[in-house]
Amino acid sequence: MIRRFRNRLARISQQPGRPFIIPTRYGLFIPVIVITHLLAVTLAGSAGDIVFLMFIVTASLMAMFMTHSNIENLEVTLSGPLHIMEKKDVSFLITVTNHQDSACLGVSLIADIEGAGVPAVVIPVIPGKSRLEVPCSFRAEATGVLPVKGVRVSGTWPLGIFFAWKWHRQSVNIYVFPRPEGGQPLPGSRCAPGSHQSALSGQSISDFSGLRAFREGDRIRHIYWKLVAKGGPPLVREFQGAGQWNYQLRYCETSHRSVPLRLRQLSAWIHALHEGGHSYSLELPGSKVDVARGEMHFYHCLRELAAVESL
After folding, report:
1. What does CATH list as the number for 1-177?
2. For 177, phi and psi rounded to 5 degrees?
3. By percentage, how much of the chain surpasses pLDDT 70?
4. Rounded distance, CA 100 to CA 22, Å?
């Protein structure tokens, strides 16, 4: 029963956008002081006790209202890289927008990223009708998928006897991929249908077939620069069989026994092939990425590497 109540209370207190407020450990002394002086007023009826009691009650109510309103109109968003290399320091921005006319004081921000110890950031003053960008950082120690749950805004201003907080939820994932490392040579490539190989150079021989609009992932050296220099649109020269070397990257073909070393070797192959503009596929235990190339395919493969758990 108690555990169920605590779980329900935790779910309620994490509702997005809704401020909550509770007394701090110092604020718990307020009811004791009020009850003590209430008994004194009842027994003795001293005018000084009555004035002091009214002062304590009024100050406590005003402090509770001001602590609540200090964070009520703040809007927070989290932005930063979604693909991170392991063992690297990651920097991101928390953007805070104050929609009210008055300034917000002593506001604390903490990003809730599962598996990452992100320290809290305290902003002394957020001017009214303003926007601030607060840099934060953490170190990605190991590969994996880190769910970003959101940012918690909190504060105890002005007297420190009440603690108010609210959540700004964001449903995104940060992918920590293995760093490219390993000296194993690339596995053999496969010549796709429609291309043929030169016996002298060992490369694909291609014939010019026309021009088309530039697409993401196209090789820069295939752009028709003479047209671009004259102010024309970027067009790409197409060749029959051009770039038709499809590399097949398989987890089982890595020579290491350790899972992290296998993944780092695959990461090294992926980075090398992406920089060279080659097409490649990726086969992992439980998942497969079809042959493609370009920026989107590159990050797709890195996300698959980040999602591999210990086997």
Report:
1. 2.60.40.10
2. -95, 160
3. 79
4. 23
- The answer to whether residues 132 and 167 touch, using CB atoms and an 8 Å cutoff, is no
Residue with tokens 């209202």: 65
Q: What's the N-to-C CA distance of the chain in angstroms?
A: 39
Contact (Cβ atoms closer than 8 angstroms) between residue 49 and residue 41: yes
Question: Residue 52: CB partners within 8 Å, gap ≥ 6?
Answer: 37
Summarised one tens digit per residue, pLDDT across range 96-132 is 999 999 999 999 999 888 877 788 899 999 999 999 9
Name the helix (H) or strand (E) containing 135. Answer: strand 130-140
Over residues 29-73, the pLDDT tens digits come to: 888 888 887 887 777 767 777 888 888 889 999 999 999 999 999
Return the domain boundaries, the chain: 1-177, 180-206+241-311, 207-239
Residue 45 neighbours by CB distance under 10 Å: 9
Distance CA 273, CA 297 (A): 11
